[in-house]
TrEMBL record:
This is Mannan polymerase complexes MNN9 subunit. Its main location: Golgi. It is found in: Golgi apparatus membrane. Gene3D superfamilies: Spore Coat Polysaccharide Biosynthesis Protein SpsA, Chain A. SUPFAM superfamilies: Nucleotide-diphospho-sugar transferases.
């Protein structure tokens, strides 16, 4: 007898198949909404709402509380509430200290610990290359961080510390001072430095940051009050004078000499040189092969000068530099390309000026560079 059209006989499922299917369904439900699943919402909410650096960047996983799904957190930041004043200590303003690092100098870290600005208001950020020297520097840095943050006295512990590793190859085979300062290495070296600075800046600048102190890893001596001293000027960009201590064989005593020649006031000669250059050529300072006749802040220091005397600058170095966070938020970065024939920190000064921010320098306020 023919079956009616449309009727289908279903094969009876075995008890084993049904048991496996039921177990699988239970496992899936347990994994997704089970009460024993890790509650990531609390940690992500804390990161979003109170982390000193930035909103969350890792995925949010929904969980249940009393059978109700939690919504992903929403972080609110009012940048009008972030002050950047001449009295950062009194106003408890957050400081971001940023350092590109290829070598680790213990004296650099010791100098950081001597800063008398409250460490709970200071975030440290580092970027290191993935080279043999960079790997060694990272290990030494992490040792110091562990000693300070885990075992050190409370007053020495910093608000937070971020370490980035560069994903680009180092343009130079050696970080020796003689190799770093060869004129033919300057464009590729400083382009790489600019990229490192930008990566560090864009990763660590948070909504609560008031000031950024750029401090090179080989600057080993600053006044403990450098943050307050520079901020008291209430300038958008301010640079101290970077010197180097050395043994003077003629005088048979310790002496000091200028080191950073990137803090300068422009000259007609330099401007004329720029007009004759190709679009990708850059002006360099401190080389006899390219005499610019700029006024260098390094040579303006006087023994009887006023410590807080200001001068306007057209170019700045990065050995030590205090910057209002709003300057970077406005878009001033470190060009890794020829920007009006300037690059890296000097290009940053030019870009900041184009945005309406005037850099200034303090010829008689000194910080000191390591002497190799």
């Amino acid at each position: 007898m023919a079956r009616p059209m449309g009727s289908v006989r279903l094969k009876k499922a075995s008890p084993v198949t049904l048991a496996v299917g039921a177990a699988l369904c239970i496992f899936i439900l347990y994994f997704l909404i089970g009460s024993s699943a890790p509650d990531f919402s609390a940690s992500r909410k804390a990161t979003a709402a109170s982390h000193p650096l930035s909103p969350p960047t890792s995925p949010f996983r929904k969980t249940t509380t009393g059978g109700k799904l939690k919504a992903p957190p929403v972080a609110h930041y009012n940048l009008n509430d972030v002050s950047t004043t001449s009295q950062p200590l009194e106003n408890r303003e957050n400081i971001l200290v940023l350092t590109p690092m290829a070598r680790f100098y213990p004296a650099y870290w010791d100098n950081l610990l001597r800063l008398d600005y409250p460490h709970e208001l200071i975030t440290l950020g580092f970027i290191l290359p993935k080279t043999k020297e960079g790997n060694e520097a990272t290990k030494e840095l992490q040792k110091k961080i562990t000693k300070t943050q885990k075992y050190g006295p409370e007053k020495d512990r910093f608000k937070s510390i971020i370490i980035l590793r560069e994903d680009m190859d180092s343009p130079l085979s050696s970080q020796d001072e003689s190799e770093r300062h060869k004129m033919e290495n300057q464009k590729i070296r400083r382009a790489a430095m600019a990229k490192a600075r930008n990566s560090l800046l864009f990763t660590t600048l948070g909504p609560s940051t008031s000031w950024i102190l750029w401090l090179d890893a080989d600057v080993i001596e600053t006044p403990p009050t450098i943050i307050q001293d520079l901020a008291r000027h209430d300038q958008a960009i301010i640079a101290p004078n970077c010197f180097q201590r050395f043994w003077n064989a003629e005088k048979k005593e310790m002496d000091e000499r200028p080191y950073d020649f990137n803090n300068w006031q422009d000259s007609p000669t330099a401007l004329d040189l720029a007009k004759s250059m190709g679009p990708d050529d850059i002006l360099l300072e401190g080389y006899s092969e390219m005499a610019t006749f700029r006024t260098l802040m390094a040579y303006l220091a006087t023994d009887d000068g006023l410590l807080h005397e200001e001068i306007p600058l057209d170019g700045v170095g990065g050995a030590a530099l205090l910057v209002k966070a709003d300057v970077h938020r406005d878009g001033a970065m470190f060009p890794p390309f020829a920007f009006y024939h300037l690059i890296e920190t000097e290009g940053f000064a030019k870009m900041a000026k184009r945005l309406g921010w005037q850099p200034v320098g303090l010829p008689n306020y000194k910080v000191y560079h390591y002497n190799e």
